[in-house]
Amino acid sequence: DTEVTQTPKHLVMGMTNKKSLKCEQHMGHRAMYWYKQKAKKPPELMFVYSYEKLSINESVPSRFSPECPNSSLLNLHLHALQPEDSALYLCASSQVRATGETQYFGPGTRLLVL
Amino acid sequence: AQKITQTQPGMFVQEKEAVTLDCTYDTSDPSYGLFWYKQPSSGEMIFLIYQGSYDQQNATEGRYSLNFQKARKSANLVISASQLGDSAMYFCAMGAPMTTDSWGKLQFGAGTQVVVTP
């Protein structure tokens, strides 16, 4: 079953708040990803975890802090965000093999920063 | 560096007709993967189809087929017998091989908005 779940579906937060986005997959995948997507634009990669280790950090500001507690879970901790951080945040997972690993996406969290 | 280009920002297609979405790419890697995703207004990115650079045959998945022309570096998506539910944004994407530091990065095109009309 190709399913990645994300909570919450929607989040409104102030610039001084601390919140977390959660992502879970039960497909036995060992790579997990966070993307940020603005309206009418393609997703932008933020972080990649491979075997629970951070393998790619696309120069994301430190107010975004990823965490991978185990192979099924991926969190994104948010602190002191800016209004321009309002976006759709997508989580994805895939196998870790050769070229051609399909990334399966969750439904996303729509974040609004006031 | 990899690059994906989708030149059609939007298109209208009538129900039951076929539609071709264009995608061209550029890479110096001999091994790469090409993907198409569908994103309805709900936001979820839905995987449609995959083509590997060494695959001899064009990929097909139900009503979706990928017209892969390696020499021209194009990977067009063909949707046959369009349905109203096909209305969505469609993204072409390329994945890098594990032998590079870029493994895990999906390079996306700008997307094509498809509207299917009755």
Low-confidence stretches of chain A: none
Could you state the order of secondary-structure elements of chain B as H and E? EEEEEEEEEEEE
Radius of gyration of chain A: 13 Å
Strand content of chain B: over 45%
N- to C-terminal distance of chain B:
41 Å
Strand content of chain A: over 45%
Plain-language structure description:
The complex is a heterodimer of chains A (114) and B (118). Chain A contains no helices and eleven strands. Chain A is an all-beta fold. In chain A, the strands form two sheets. In chain A, strands 2, 4, 5, 6, 9, 10 and 11 form a seven-stranded mixed sheet that branches. In chain A, a hairpin with a 6-residue loop joins strand 4 and strand 5. With 118 residues, chain B is mainly beta. In chain B, strands 2, 5, 6, 10, 11 and 12 form a six-stranded mixed sheet that branches. The mean pLDDT of chain B is 93. At the A-B interface, strand 5, strand 9 and strand 10 of A face strand 5, strand 6 and strand 10 of B.
Sequence-ordered SSE layout with sheet pairings:
The complex is a heterodimer of chains A (114) and B (118).
Chain A: E1 4-7, E2 10-13, E3 18-25, E4 31-37, E5 44-50, E6 53-57, E7 64-70, E8 73-79, E9 87-94, E10 104-105, E11 109-113
Parallel strand pairs in A: 2-11
Antiparallel strand pairs in A: 1-3, 3-8, 4-5, 4-9, 5-6, 7-8, 9-10, 9-11
Chain B: E1 3-5, E2 10-14, E3 19-21, E4 24-26, E5 33-39, E6 46-52, E7 60-61, E8 64-69, E9 74-79, E10 88-95, E11 106-108, E12 112-117
Parallel strand pairs in B: 2-12
Antiparallel strand pairs in B: 1-4, 3-9, 5-6, 5-10, 7-8, 8-9, 10-11, 10-12
